[in-house]
Backbone:
């Protein structure tokens, strides 16, 4: 079975994440009613630039810890949700998936909310960076100043999740 | 004391190194190491308010003290997902 | 390429729906930034009963038309979203997927909202019924009185989608 | 005029048929066909307020007139997903 939380260079396979979150043992077996999933995909346009490809890098051990932190937040906020989160690094072409998330729950509202919350938190606190290679140059994309203890950011992620 | 400094993304481009060894005095903090780097690489100064930092692969604040052998990391604003 | 909207007896394969919504031609090629997806899964418990399996039936031609209507509502509310929606009928075991949805969009907020909206509308207006076989008997599950023109129901689906 | 009536899920269990042929008078509506069925199968009466209906695989209201050859469907509350 694949790990629930991972960073790697191989193409992401959403079906493996879905299988990982629904293959429960013991009392939880068969209790899932819904799986919400998300794939982040490399887009051919950004900020008016024609994107050729992206290169992702990560501070891998801290990124995995960040994923564990996010999974812990999800477990506290949505008990019973089982979460899988994989991020790809290296060179990614247009249309390829950079991040894959699957969240299984007895009820679809929790599955959707926790899945959305997870991608928001990845963008806020995971030490991962993308370098955009566009027609005419390249640029490091810089988004959020990462601070896992920033409760304002966390509340914003919860709002985005409609939680 | 000797620490290893890890630098990512544009910080690495500015410094030209993904990993730098640094001798530091007792009482050094993440912040004092950062200020030393900024003195050496003035282009880092623009990150004063947006930098994040970690010690031994855990997020840590700038006032966090460092020990001999620590791995200190400086992280520009993140853009995963 | 599989159809975007379908009803059938074969097991659902989410990856095929994801491929169908992201494989765009012309100007739209490469424009997707995110895909939200949902799988409805047969649960082993419902209303205090131990479920053994379900049997789904549909008024198939009207169900497909309902899916087309939902896709039209999504296109009007979230322009640029590409939607796939498949529902399975026949006997389904615990853990099997009864419905699969994928929604691709340039922006993840639209992908999530349209995906959630779609499952809410399926439950409101698709002429599909499940018969639950539980320990000790069986029962037809009856949910919503289907009325595609009911704007109160539609607004409720939009609220659930956090739209 | 002759129409075909389609019945689903528990309505089919009550009537014992998924498809019934019905001769109807000119001016018949979905509603008049429904009332005829309720007269024949009293257990259908409980669906008075929750029934949906369709003509020729499109949703239609109870006051919708029917034509010769139409397929009329009665739908109990749905439970897909």
Residues:
């Amino acid at each position: 079975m694949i790990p629930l939380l991972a960073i790697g260079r191989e193409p992401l396979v959403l079906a493996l994440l879905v299988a990982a979150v629904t293959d429960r043992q013991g009392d939880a077996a068969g209790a899932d009613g819904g799986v919400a999933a998300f794939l982040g995909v490399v887009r051919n346009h950004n900020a008016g630039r024609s994107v050729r490809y992206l290169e992702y890098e990560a501070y891998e051990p801290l990124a995995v810890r960040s994923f564990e932190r996010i999974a812990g937040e999800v477990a506290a906020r949505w008990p019973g949700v089982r979460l899988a989160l994989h991020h790809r690094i290296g060179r990614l072409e247009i249309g390829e998936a950079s991040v894959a998330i699957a969240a299984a729950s007895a009820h679809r509202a929790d599955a959707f909310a926790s899945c959305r919350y997870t991608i928001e938190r990845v963008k806020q606190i995971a030490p991962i960076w993308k370098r955009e290679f566009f027609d005419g140059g390249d640029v490091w994309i810089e988004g959020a100043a990462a601070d896992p203890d920033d409760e304002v950011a966390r509340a914003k992620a919860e709002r985005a999740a409609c939680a | 004391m000797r620490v290893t400094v890890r630098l990512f993304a544009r910080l690495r481009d500015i410094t030209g190194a993904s990993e730098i060894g640094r001798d530091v005095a007792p009482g050094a903090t993440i912040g004092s190491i950062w200020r030393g780097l900024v003195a050496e690489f003035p282009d880092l100064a623009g990150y004063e308010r947006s930098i994040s930092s970690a010690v031994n692969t855990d997020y840590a604040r700038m006032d966090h003290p460092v020990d001999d052998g620590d791995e200190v990391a400086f992280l520009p604003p993140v853009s995963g997902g």
User: Anything to note?
Assistant: The longest strand of chain B covers residues 2-7.
